[in-house]
Amino acid sequence: MGDMLAAGGWLMLPIALCSVIGLAIVIERAWMLRTERVAPSSLTAQMTQLARSAPLTAADRQALEAHCPLGKVWAEVVACRDAAIDVRRERIEEAGRRAAHEMTRYLNTLGTIAAVTPLLGLLGTVAGMIHIFSAMTEAGLGDAQALAGGIGQALVTTAAGLCVAIPALVAYRYFIGRVEQQGLMLEQMASRLIEAQRRTLAR
User: Fold this and answer.
1) Secondary structure of the chain in the HEC alphabet?
2) pLDDT at 173 over 80
3) What count of other Cβ atoms lies within 10 Å of the Cβ of residue 196?
4) Mean pLDDT of 65-84
5) Torsion angle of alpha carbons 39, 45, 50, 52, nearest 10°?
6) Phi, psi (rounded to 5 degrees) for 45
7) What is the separation of C-alpha 13 from the centre of its chain, rounded to a whole number of angstroms?
8) Which residues contact 189 (CB under 8 A, 6 or more apart)?
9) Nearest-CA neighbor of 173 among 111, 122, 116, 130?
């Protein structure tokens, strides 16, 4: 690894930094976007209780919203139970957007890493070619070591950039799809709570 970093030159440092940040984001999002984290079974089991409950106190709402994304949506459903239909729909949709925004945290950074690292590799390629032509100008074609150094820099940075960008792009697309799935699940769970409230009020 040390030899690869040395061969690629200083441009390997930002590529390596991008790889570390990207890996950290992948691990964090994989943990946070689990179904049990977004809509834990301990909370979904309380749906009937929430459907029967009166408007939440500030403390109860804060505790419910801190629980998970589903808690944020359900807290709004319970809080605006007696509001007009249009107002209620707007507030619940806003809560859903906030929950979706929370689930997409750091994904823009991951997408930026997927886009930037190939460009860093391309910049390394250009720098390597400049090094080659400089060596040819100064020493001619006889200095094989100087030429090899430029070629090595060009190839290593390009390969390193692609090795970071490809997994980052795959992870980014996967997590975007995962957020869409979880957002749909939150919408369905909100509808279930609303229906449970209607059944409770009809009794």
Assistant:
1) CHHHHHHHCCCHHHHHHHHHHHHHHHHHHHHHCCHHHHCCHHHHCCHHHHHHCCCCCHHHHHHHHCCCHHHHHHHHHHHCCCCCHHHHHHHHHHHHHHHHHHHCCCHHHHHHHHHHHHHHHHHHHHHHHHHHHHHHHHHHHHCHHHHHHHHHHHHHHHHHHHHHHHHHHHHHHHHHHHHHHHHHHHHHHHHHHHHHHHHHHHC
2) yes
3) 17
4) 84
5) 150
6) -70, -15
7) 23
8) 39, 44, 47, 70, 73, 74
9) 111
CA distance 38 to 36: 6
Q: How far is CA 78 from CA 54, 63, 72, 192, in A?
A: 8, 13, 10, 12
Return d(Cα 25, Cα 22) in angstroms, integer: 5
CA 28 to chain centre: 8
Give this prediction's pTM: 0.83
Euclidean distance between CA atoms 65 and 43, whole angstroms: 11
Does residue 181 register a pLDDT over 90?
A: yes
Tokens standing for 6? 């040395």
Q: How many CA atoms lie within 13 A of 35 on its CB side?
A: 6
Name the residue with tokens 């590799």: 121
> Two tokens at 68?
């998970």
Side chain identity, residue 5: L
Give me 190's structure tokens: 């909100």
